[in-house]
Every structure is written in structure tokens, then in C-alpha cells.
Design brief:
The complex is a heterotrimer of chains A (410), B (276) and C (294). Chain A is an alpha+beta fold and 410 residues long. Chain A is 33% helix and 26% strand. Chain A folds into two domains: 8-289, Ribosomal Protein S5, domain 2 (2-Layer Sandwich), CATH 3.30.230; 292-409, no CATH class. Chain B has helices at residues 2-11, 64-68, 101-117, 141-155, 193-197, 235-264; strands at residues 28-32, 40-46, 49-59, 76-83, 127-136, 165-171, 188-189, 201-208, 219-227, 230-231, 273-275. The chains are: A alpha+beta (410), B alpha+beta (276), C alpha+beta (294). Chain C: Residues 28-66 form the Exosome complex component N-terminal domain.
Chain lengths: 410, 276, 294
């Protein structure tokens, strides 16, 4: 399937919005989307979501003969897979231009910067060494694949533990995880890719979405570690329009954000690894938690972003009942440590998010424990009340049904 | 071995391994119009990096490009970057000339550079092919390829905005702090293979330097940094150094083009131009 | 057959700079060079206006100024078609009611079925049957000679062969030279004194036709005369080919006069000797000298 060409009016709209320093999702120009990292059951496996862009990474290792040119170093392979699952215009099983570009950017960022101690991965010089392989699958494309993939790759590498090895004269023994504790990789510094996009009028934005990527005129990706050191740089013109050089002006911002991002990755990796060391069951930051985050009935999120009437103010509240009279939002106390926000205004619906509350509540009825059932019903009733009062013109399924009945009667 | 070389370098009074100063380019040899069959062609040597480029077109789109870009309003540029299997000086052979990730990436970036200068709106529904063959590698080969491709486009008479000039600037050892005052602190231009492999960082810049003499005014089209770690504070100096190199190369290539014109505008025989 | 032709090997260091004329630098323009910053000039081929309203050259070549129109002409470029030009081309593709012709232009030219003479008279309707049998008249790879009828908006050309001198070419050699070397003249068809037919296409394609019997034109120029060409005539064609390549190599404009001069000057060599650089220089110098006498 061929990529859909963006219409002129869409382009103009985005350009005009950027002119006025607004972005379609309400972010500041130099503001990135929230990053979420969830770890899988294995070492070195994680899902990273950057807004709606999602990537899954898995590190694996095996023992191979080291390269002749580097006999006492292990190897690192990075492979980014763009398949039609992420976006229908990606072709499966072929080296396309974007996949090569992302692959090379990550290779320069992670491999050429020598951030991983490859010498410690050598077991017997010139004979046996660990071969690390990072596979990154993009599973949802909403722009800025490089950043998402680089965060995923870095988090997976930091999270990864390899089996311990003991070598006698002739043979080497790979210990299973049960025999000896696995060992983490040695990482000297932590580079991440930070992407920017320059528009016709010279405005630069951080972390572009898919739509913005189609409109921008130049793209810039910097691989920076937390010590303000540049590991890779890619600057490309996408169209034939000249804009001023932006690298000096935004490199500072990039470095600050990189430091922030790296500390975030470090923190989430540390939490997960510690939980694993203690062998305690961790009920956050796992794969199963990342699936249902967008749904209205999702009870798992402990942080709920509440959009206030002024853009750019993000408020994270816990254990608190908030009643906002201006907005059609309501928080219902559910249990001790979570609150549910019902976005009854068009925020979810208008964005094309699926209105799943009805179906899910019914399924929840069947599956969940009894006290939650009560709670869900409470939600339901409240919703109905609100519907009647305020949502007369909003598209609500029950409403439309009523309408048709009325039509039939008259 | 590399470390030893650098120590030596400190003793050489600011000269590099090959005796150049920090902002000094290698010897450039140019020959345009080397093929009869192609619409435009050029051969470029920068030191021991030797590159041949052939340009075909603009012509009727053929092959896969015709099917993919059938509805394309502007023209199509098709670039192929291939490295000869014998191009390494160390005697080792490259397994295949093209199709690996690095070659595809370079083809892609070469296309970006060419798209930024060719006035594609003049050639609706036409195709321009740029074939690059790297004959010998001694550092900066991607930048030399862009320079050679620009010359081939000029030879083919295809309208371009300006010369697209590539130049590398390399910080030989970014970790050493003691040479802050020496000229190497801002990086060395037109890096050789040895300098690129050193544990520093290399910045490759493709710019449109323009005909003005202000070096830092050039419009950067493609920039690529590789190597190990480079502190952000040193990026600006490195970039300016590379842009200076771009301007110098432009002047040299411009002279070569003028000489080529002089020779070929009158009944004459082609000659090899050697310009320092 | 153990007798080999002599092999000529020269050292590269013996190559000498053989500029016929001393290189004087007349005003050349290179891409990006400022042509004029004044307004009031019209932008012609090979120039562009940048963001600061400055007129700059976009190709490397010589400046041409016609009143207010400024253009820069490159030394070598693809053929830019003009109505009335004589072109030599090769059929590349057959489409509905049309042939696609490669004419060294930036896109393939079009030869419509309605703009050729079909056998059996001028005023013939083109039936569906004609469309189906188009390949019988011209198929892929055939060489034709045609005139440019009109240009399309995107710059591609429409050709016609409605005059009997145009049509399919049968036996001979096609050469490709730079279109800039062909001078626009009244006639581009030349019957040389040695019997060969020379067509200097404006698009830089040159046709050397072997000396054959007078063509029967009643079939609309679609018959190919495949009768045997005498060895002597073949040699004439080969010599002409080498002479034209010599002239092209030395950037001497191709006209019937220059080709004839070169042909006459080359008589002291055998056709194969004309490939050697000494012979090339000799013939080119003598031709140039004779041309400059008039």
C-alpha cells in the first residue's frame, strides 16, 4: 500500500499552527511526548511508548567467534524492523530507505559511540565472545521512530542480563540462571537520540508526530548522552526550502532533555531490576499494564493526566477527588489508591478514541471481583446522569438510539 | 598503534601525519567529461580518495522508478552509491559493492544532497540517474562523492542552484584537553582514513557555500556526525572548520570548471587538469 | 589466421596538451555565480532568481543576451526541441495510437499514428485495423527521421513524418554527438559527393546512410531497403563515421562543409587509422584550417 499524500490544506494548517507556536496536540514547540517504559518477563525486553509511537525491543545473546579485526571484543548487532503492522506503507521483509536510516542512526548512536563495554563480553580471545543482538520492532507509527527505537534499545540493553560463564582450559560452561546469578552489561555512558524538525518559517519543534514529519523541511537527530556529549548527528533536508542553521540554538535544549530522559530510563530500569532481584511480584511497569492504558475503564494507571482549560498545564493527581465544574469531567473515588477520570467531553471521543466504556464495563461485570462491580455500576449511573444533563448534543450511543425511536414515533 | 601516532603528532609542531596543517586540504585533481556515453561524468581525487561519477538524464523514467513515481510532479533522482571491492588500501576486500546498510544510507543521503541543488521543477516526469563508484578509500569518501556528483551534474548541463560541497572536519582526540590552544582543537579538515578511525569524532557536512567569501554563511544541507563522544561545546568550532573547508573546495572546483569550459568551448583536445 | 593487426601502445606520460587554440578566458559563468542584481532582466534558460532577487547562473557556460532576456548556455546538455527541427530517433515503445521515440530529449517524444504517412495515399482514414498493425510499420528499435511538429506543456515533443523525405531509416550508422555541435541550417539532409546520405539531426543524432538505389516512396517510407551494400560503400560509411567522431571530439561544428573537408583530409589514412590520436589531431587541424580560410 502506498503512503497517502498529505493534502495542501492539511499542510497549510500545520504550518500556520506552527507559525503561532502551537502544535496540534497542544504541546510547546520544544516539548516531547511522555515516555512510558514497560518491561517484559525476560531480561532485556521492553515496550516503549512515546506518545502513540510504540516500539518493542528484545536483547538476546549467543556465543560466536569474534571478528578477526577485534579478537578480544564481543559484538553488538542492532536491527530495527519496520513492518506493515506499524503503518501499512511499510513493506515487510525488505530493506526500505527509512529502515536503513533508522538502523544506521542507532548504530552510530549506540555502537560507534562505544557506550557498551564490548571487551568484557569476550570469553576466550580470538575464539569465543558474546554476540549481543538488539531487535527493535516498531509496532505503532506516529512519528519520531528514531527516538522511540533508541530509548527502547537503550532501556533493553540496560535491563539485559547475560548468563554467567566460567571457563576452564578447554571448555566453557554457560551457567543457567538457576545456577548462578546473571550479570548485567557494563555501560559507560547512555546515549539517546533526540529528534527535531524544522519548519518553513524556521521554527523548530521537538519530537515530531507523523503529521508534522510530513510537513517539516529539515530533520535533525542528535545522539546525546547525559554528559552533554554528542555521539551522533544527522541533519537532512527533506524538501528544497532553505532555512537557517538550527543546530547551535537547540543543542542546549537537546542536551538538557537527554539528561532528563536518561535519568528516567535509568530510574525505571532500576526499579524493575530491583524488583526482580528481590523476586517480588511487581504489578506495575509490565507488559500487561501497557495494553489497556487508553481505555476509559482502565484501572491500572496510577497517574491520570488532567487537561485544564489552558494548554500546557499538566496535572498529575493521586488520591484526590477533583470536581471541575467548567469541564465535563468527573472523578469518582474507586478504591484507596486509584481514581478514575471520566472524560465525558469530546477529548477521547473527538480524538477518534474508541468509546469502549460500555462493552468493557459489561465484561468487567463478569470478570472482576464483586466490590469492583459495584463501583463500575456507580460509574455507569453517574454517566447516565451526566449524559442527560450535559451531553445532549454529544455523540453518545444511547442518545442516538433514542433519537431514532423518536423519529419512528413521529 | 594509534595512540603512538598521536603522540608523534604533538611533536610535529601542529602538523598532521601527512604533513598538512589543520585547515589544509589534500591535493585535488579533477577531470570532467570522462565518459562518452553518459550525459555527464567526473573523476575526482582528494588525496588518495578517488571517485568516479556518471550522470544520465534527464530522461524518460525507466525501471522501478517509473512505476513508483508515476504521479510524481517533479523529477525523480535515482542515486546509486557503490564501493569497488578493491577500494580498501589495506588489501582486504569488500564483500559486495552495494546493497549493505552503509551503501544504502549513503545513496539516500546523496539523493538528499542532489535534491537540494537540482532544480527539479524544470524536469517534470523525468528521471536523473547519478551513479557513484568509489575506486579508492582514504577517508571523507562520502563528501568527495558529493563533490564529484556536483561536477558531473555541471558537466551534464543540468541546472543546479549552487555547488553542493562536502567536507569533513575531524577532532582527532576529543578527550585530550591539553591542546586547547593549538589549531587542532577546532578539528582538522578533509580527514584521511587514519584520522577518521582515531578515537575522536568526525563531522561530515554537505553545504551550499555560495559564492560569498563569508565562510560561516554556507547553508548546511546534510550533516552527519560519527565517531565517539564529542562535547557539545566543541561542535560549533568543528562545524565552522568544516564550512571553511567547503568554501575552499568550492573555490578549487570552480576554477576547475572554468578551466574545463575554456578548454572545451573551442576546438581542442581534452587534457587532464591538475589543480592544487 | 595467425596474422594480427599491429597494436599501438603509448605511454600515458607521452600524452601532450594539444590545445588547438590558446585558452583565453572569455566570460564563463558557473552555477551559483551572480549574473546581475538589477531588476528588469528576464530570466532565461540556465539562470534562476534567488531569495534576494539576484539573477544567478544555474549551469556552467556562456552568457547569451537577447534584449532583456538573459540565458546561460551550457556546453553540453540534452536536446531542447523546437518546432521545425529535423531529428533522428529510435522507437522505444508502442502505445495506443502512438509510438514513443527516444530523441535525446529529457522525455521520450511522441509520434502519433495520425501524423505519419500510411501506405496508399495522403488522405487515408486511420482505421482500428491500422492501430492493430502499427508494429508492422515501425517496431521497437527502428530508427526514424522526423520533424518536430509541436511541443507539449511538459516539454516533450510531438513528431511527424508527413513529408516523404522523413520516415524509416534503413541501412547505415547512427552516431550520437552533443546537440550543441549541430548548427541549425536550412537543410539537414545532405547527399555527399561520395554517394552517402548524411542526416544531421538537430538532437545530436547523426545518420550516415549507405549509398543505395533510389527509394521507392509509394509505401510511405516504411519499406526497408535491405539490398546488399557494396564493400566500397561500407568503407565510405566507416570513414565518414570516424571523421564525424573526430570533429565531435575536437568540438568542431558539424555541417556538410566540415564533414566533407574532414572526409577529404582523411583520405591519406585508412579508416581504421583514423582512430589513432596522431591521425585525429592531423585531420582536425587541417579541417579547422580549411574552415577558417573562408
Amino acid at each position: 500500500m502506498r503512503e497517502v499524500i498529505l493534502s495542501h490544506c492539511e499542510k497549510n494548517f500545520v504550518n500556520k499552527a506552527i507559525d503561532k507556536e502551537t502544535r496540534l496536540d497542544g504541546r510547546q514547540l520544544l516539548e516531547a511526548r511522555p515516555v512510558n517504559i514497560h518491561f517484559g518477563s525476560n531480561w532485556g525486553c521492553c515496550i516503549v511508548s512515546l506518545g502513540r509511537t510504540k516500539a518493542i525491543a528484545q536483547v538476546s545473546c549467543d556465543i560466536q567467534k569474534p571478528k578477526a579485526s577485534r579478537p578480544n571484543e564481543g559484538m553488538l548487532h542492532i536491527n530495527v524492523e519496520l513492518n506493515p503492522m506499524a503503518a501499512p506503507f511499510f513493506e515487510a521483509g525488505r530493506q526500505s530507505d527509512p529502515s536503513v536510516q533508522i538502523n544506521r542512526q542507532l548504530e552510530r548512536c549506540l555502537k560507534d559511540s562505544k557506550c557498551i563495554d564490548l571487551e568484557s563480553l569476550c570469553i576466550v580471545a580470538d575464539k569465543k565472545a558474546w554476540n549481543l543482538r538488539v531487535d527493535i520492532n516498531i509496532i505503532n507509527h506516529d512519528g519520531n521512530l528514531v527516538d522511540c527505537a533508541s530509548i527502547a534499545a537503550l532501556a533493553a540493553l540496560m535491563h539485559f542480563h547475560r548468563p554467567d560463564v566460567s571457563s576452564s582450559e578447554e571448555e566453557i560452561i554457560i551457567h543457567s540462571f538457576a545456577e548462578k546469578d546473571p550479570l548485567p552489561l557494563t555501560i559507560y555512558h547512555h546515549p539517546v537520540c533526540i529528534s527535531f524538525l524544522v519548519f518553513e518559517n524556521g521554527n523548530t519543534i521537538m519530537d515530531p508526530t507523523y503529521l508534522e514529519e510530513k510537513v517539516g523541511v529539515a530533520q535533525l537527530t542528535m545522539g546525546i548522552n547525559s554528559y552533554r556529549e554528542l555521539c551522533s548527528l544527522d541533519f537532512n533536508y527533506l524538501t528544497r526550502t532553505s532555512v537557517a542553521d538550527v543546530i547551535p540554538t537547540i543543542s542546549n535544549q537537546a542536551a538538557n532533555y537527554a539528561a532528563e530522559l536518561v535519568s528516567l530510563i535509568k530510574e525505571s530500569v532500576r526499579q524493575d531490576v530491583e524488583a526482580r532481584y528481590k523476586k517480588e511480584v511487581k504489578n506495575f511497569g509490565r507488559f500487561e499494564n501497557c495494553i489497556a492504558t487508553d481505555k476509559l475503564t482502565a484501572m491500572f494507571t496510577d497517574k491520570i493526566p488532567i487537561k485544564l482549560s489552558s494548554w500546557g498545564k499538566m496535572d498529575d493527581r493521586e488520591d484526590e477527588i477533583m470536581e471541575d465544574q467548567k469541564e465535563n469531567e468527573q472523578i469518582i473515588k474507586i478504591n484507596k489508591n486509584s481514581a478514575e477520570l471520566l472524560l465525558l467531553k469530546g477529548d477521547l471521543f473527538g480524538n477518534g478514541g474508541v468509546n469502549t466504556w460500555q462493552n468493557d464495563s459489561s465484561s468487567d461485570d463478569e470478570e472482576e471481583s464483586s466490590d469492583e462491580v459495584v463501583m463500575v455500576e456507580e460509574t455507569k449511573t453517574k454517566c447516565h446522569v451526566l449524559d442527560d444533563i450535559e451531553l445532549s448534543e454529544d455523540s453518545e450511543e444511547e442518545e442516538t438510539q433514542n433519537m431514532t425511536k423518536d423519529d419512528i414515533q413521529t | 598503534m594509534l595512540e603512538g601516532d598521536q603522540d608523534q603528532e604533538e611533536d610535529q609542531g601542529g602538523l598532521r601525519n601527512d604533513g598538512r596543517r589543520a585547515a589544509e586540504l589534500r591535493k585535488i585533481r579533477v577531470r570532467m567529461g570522462v565518459f562518452g556515453q553518459a550525459d555527464g561524468s567526473a573523476y575526482l581525487e582528494q588525496g588518495n580518495t578517488k571517485i568516479l561519477v556518471a550522470v544520465y538524464g534527464p530522461h524518460q523514467p525507466r525501471g522501478s522508478a517509473a512505476r513508483a513515481g508515476g504521479k510524481n510532479v517533479g523529477g525523480i533522482i535515482n542515486c546509486q552509491y557503490s564501493t569497488a571491492v578493491f577500494s580498501f588500501s589495506a588489501g582486504e576486500r569488500k564483500r559486495r559493492p552495494r546493497g549493505d546498510r552503509k551503501s544504502i544510507e549513503k545513496s539516500l543521503q546523496l539523493r538528499r544532497a542532489m535534491e537540494s541543488i537540482i532544480q527539479l521543477d524544470l524536469y517534470p516526469r523525468s528521471q536523473i540517474d547519478v551513479f557513484v563508484e568509489v575506486l579508492q578509500i582514504d577517508g571523507s569518501e562520502y563528501c568527495v562523492a558529493v563533490n564529484a556528483a556536483t561536477l558531473a551534474l555541471i558537466d551534464a548541463g543540468i541546472p543546479i542552484k549552487d555547488y553542493a560541497i562536502g567536507c569533513t572536519a575531524s577532532l582527532i582526540d576529543s578527550t585530550s584537553k591539553n591542546d586547547e590552544d593549538s589549531s587542532h582543537a577546532a578539528g582538522v579538515v578533509d580527514a584521511t582514513y587514519m584520522e577518521e578511525c582515531s578515537p575522536g569524532a568526525t563531522l561530515s557536512i554537505i553545504a551550499l557555500p555560495g559564492s560569498s567569501n563569508d565562510a560561516t554563511k554556507g547553508l548546511v544541507v546534510v550533516a552527519q556526525g560519527a565517531g565517539q563522544r564529542l562535547h557539545l561545546s566543541r561542535l560549533e568550532a568543528l562545524r565552522n572548520r568544516a564550512l571553511c573547508g567547503c568554501r575552499d573546495i568550492r573555490n578549487i572546483l570552480d576554477r576547475a570548471v572554468r578551466q574545463h569550459l575554456t578548454v572545451h568551448s573551442q576546438p581542442s583536445f581534452s587534457t587532464l587538469h591538475v589543480i592544487d | 589466421m595467425d596474422e594480427c593487426p599491429p597494436i599501438t601502445v603509448r605511454l600515458a606520460v607521452d600524452r601532450t596538451d594539444m590545445n588547438l587554440t590558446a585558452g583565453e578566458n572569455i566570460g564563463f559563468y558557473t552555477p551559483g555565480q551572480e549574473v546581475s542584481s538589477q531588476t528588469g532582466f528576464m530570466r532565461g534558460h540556465g539562470t534562476y532568481v534567488d531569495e534576494e532577487e539576484t539573477l544567478r547562473a544555474s549551469v556552467a557556460g556562456v552568457l547569451e543576451k537577447v534584449n532583456k532576456l538573459i540565458s546561460v548556455r551550457p556546453l553540453k546538455t540534452r536536446y531542447q526541441g523546437e518546432i521545425g527541427d529535423v531529428v533522428v530517433g529510435r522507437i522505444t515503445e508502442l502505445q495506443q495510437k502512438r509510438w514513443k521515440v527516444d530523441t535525446n530529449s529529457k522525455m521520450d517524444s511522441v509520434l502519433l499514428l495520425s501524423s505519419v504517412n500510411l501506405p496508399g495515399g495522403e488522405l487515408r482514414r486511420r482505421s482500428a485495423e491500422d492501430e492493430q498493425t502499427m508494429r508492422r510499420y515501425l517496431q521497437e528499435g527502428d530508427l526514424i527521421c522526423a520533424e518536430v511538429q509541436s511541443t507539449f506543456a511538459d516539454g516533450s515533443l510531438s513528431l511527424h513524418t508527413r513529408v516523404l523525405k522523413y520516415g524509416k531509416l534503413s541501412q547505415g550508422i547512427m552516431l550520437k554527438v552533443s546537440p550543441a555541435l549541430i548548427k541549425r541550417k536550412k537543410t539537414h539532409f545532405h547527399n555527399l559527393a561520395n554517394g552517402a546520405i548524411l542526416i544531421l539531426g538537430n538532437n545530436g543524432y547523426v545518420w550516415i546512410g549507405a549509398n543505395t538505389q533510389e527509394k521507392d516512396q509509394s509505401e510511405g517510407g516504411f519499406t526497408q531497403d535491405l539490398s546488399r551494400v557494396a564493400l566500397q560503400d561500407r568503407e565510405i560509411c566507416a570513414r565518414l563515421r570516424n571523421c564525424i567522431l573526430i570533429l565531435a571530439e575536437c568540438n568542431i561544428l558539424l555541417t556538410d562543409t566540415s564533414v566533407t573537408y574532414a572526409y577529404e583530409e582523411s583520405m591519406k589514412y585508412t579508416p581504421s587509422e583514423l582512430l589513432q590520436s596522431e591521425a585525429i589531431i592531423d585531420v582536425a587541424l587541417l579541417t579547422q584550417q580549411r574552415l577558417s580560410q573562408f
